[in-house]
Amino acid sequence: xxxxxxxxxxxxxxxxxxxxxxxxxxxxxxxxxxxxxxxxxxxxxxxxxxxxxxxxxxxxxxxxxxxxxxxxxxxxxxxxxxxxxxxxxxxxxxxxxxxxxxxxxxxxxxxxxxxxxxxxxxxxxxxxxxxxxxxxxxxxxxxxxxxxxxxxxxxxxxxxxxxxxxxxxxxxxxxxxxxxxxxxxxxxxxxxxxxxxxxxxxxxxxxxxxxxxxxxxxxxxxxxxxxxxxxxxxxxxxxxxxxxxxxxxxxxxxxxxxxxxxxxxxxxxxxxxxxxxxxxxxxxxxxxxxxxxxxxxxxxxxxxxxxxxxxxxxxxxxxxxxxxxxxxxxxxxxxxxxxxx
Amino acid sequence: xxxxxxxxxxxxxxxxxxxxxxxxxxxxxxxxxxxxxxxxxxxxxxxxxxxxxxxxxxxxxxxxxxxxxxxxxxxxxxxxxxxxxxxxxxxxxxxxxxxxxxxxxxxxxxxxxxxxxxxxxxxxxxxxxxxxxxxxxxxxxxxxxxxxxxxxxxxxxxxxxxxxxxxxxxxxxxxxxxxxxxxxxxxxxxxxxxxxxxxxxxxxxxxxxxxxxxxxxxxxxxxxxxxxxxxxxxxxxxxxxxxxxxxxxxxxxxxxxxxxxxxxxxxxxxxxxxxxxxxxxxxxxxxxxxxxxxxxxxxxxxxxxxxxxxxxxxxxxxxxxxxxxxxxxxxxxxxxxxxxxxxxxxxxxxxxxxxxxxxxxxxxxxxxxxx
Lengths: 341, 371
Description:
Strand order of the largest sheet of chain B: 3-2-4-5-7-6-12
CATH class of the largest domain in chain B: Alpha Beta
Largest sheet of chain A: 5 strands, parallel
Largest interface: A-B, 52 and 46 residues
Distance between the termini of chain A: 61 Å
Oligomer: heterodimer
Number of domains of chain A: 1
Radius of gyration of chain A: 21 Å
Shape of chain B: globular
CATH superfamily of chain A: Thiamin diphosphate (ThDP)-binding fold, Pyr/PP domains
Shape of chain A: globular
């Protein structure tokens, strides 16, 4: 396993910029949710940005990623824009999935991003299927299935991992351990909280998820492992989410404000990169603040524009149910959808 | 393997004798000789269809429990592991949730998996992947995700396997937008519908019947064409009639045809038997046009009555122009509303038999003026 990372100004500036983009998107989503422009479920990723960013630094879009519902930043890192990501949550036709999916359902098959999955744990066998396809098609790539400490107790993870080990599939099971599955701490949910060991005979390791360079090097190592045909790995990233589980969870009934503030002060992923840039004189405080201000202004402008975007049309209700035309019944009979049967 | 050559000559010899043909189609003949027919078991129909599609498209593979080295729990995939090897025929551990999810992910990346459930009862372990991961994916992704997968296996009643192994899942899966639900009956259906399902871009739930696996049936030899496919949205009128429409799928088609023979012979009732072939999308048009002709309808299914396929057909009768043509209410024949018992004496009472269908038709035709 790697012991050091080599980096330069360009890389760190790129990480800083996109992580700030991710962070700002999540903060704006919070405000929009409170303003009731976003509805339903909204699970925010702020605090965990280094994992999404660090993974992309190690992978290409030929590698496949799948995650659960805390997926806004993975969507952005896989090539989507804050505009489309926010427009989707704001229920607009201009959103990433045309207003059909919402916060939990972002996809980008061209860039091998398979969601965006609402059912806890389901992404693990499906992600294993992505790895199956990569091996079947003899591609020198890996698949990454991301999950949380809560999902680590889903039986289907172990069914899938067993087959991955049996068939030596190039899959990385990446646990983003942010210490709480909704309101339940690791200790209250798991008899064995060493999530990197839960793969039984499958090797695993635990590592810091707040430092984008650490994440990057770990993922590079892991991808090489997979592509060399050695089979799956269980990777546990130590991380933290500032928000509650979702917008309906204040996030302070099962943890202390002190704990949250401690992470913000000492382990914030963006601050870690800022510190590296400043320490090495690769950027000044002012430059970095300008980047933040620019991103803030761009996203604010996006939001204003999105507010005037159209919502899905009534006929959009009936599109993309399946491929090709077939009879779809509406609420009443006959109804708007009435294609001849 | 089919015994085409031997059978062909013996069939031509037997051309004059009455035989119980279970498939109706005759080509328009310029001469009087019998159409060339092929005979095979339903099991072999499925086997040949899968083999041909595996040979045709390198992305097609079969995955499931005992499908490979064991030659299939019911010998449906016999010989396939020897022919195609472990890269195309995948034996899995007993992990339905796991391997169904794996199939769905593989489908998302452009492969064409055939996932076999040893019985559809075991699909309950994996139903989240069929419905939430797979069926809804195309819609939630606004058309980005596609999953050209076929889930297949035996459905419904077998013999003496009791409650947990005897459920019919046709209506459960048929209620889900995003899925196709296919219910083949004979060897023509099995070959044509399975090949079409494997080639289809939508996820398909393919419901086979174990009791039919060993049954030898005959069909026109064009079904052996390597590109023989049937449409996945059309029912077939297996027997034309004028007095009553019987809708059925899977094994019940055969029972309905037997009932139709007896109804004609003993009661002079001419029954039109519709083989639904596909429950979703249901060929509503064929059913409605038939009822406009016959004015009476009997729906037959093996599964439980509540919220079953017959319920959907009854709703169709209410919602379509067929309502104005009905001379009697829809008669519904379904499995008894109980978990399947074990002893044959009561198992027989839980599943529709030919007598039940005759009884239902007589009730539907009550008051019908005979010509």
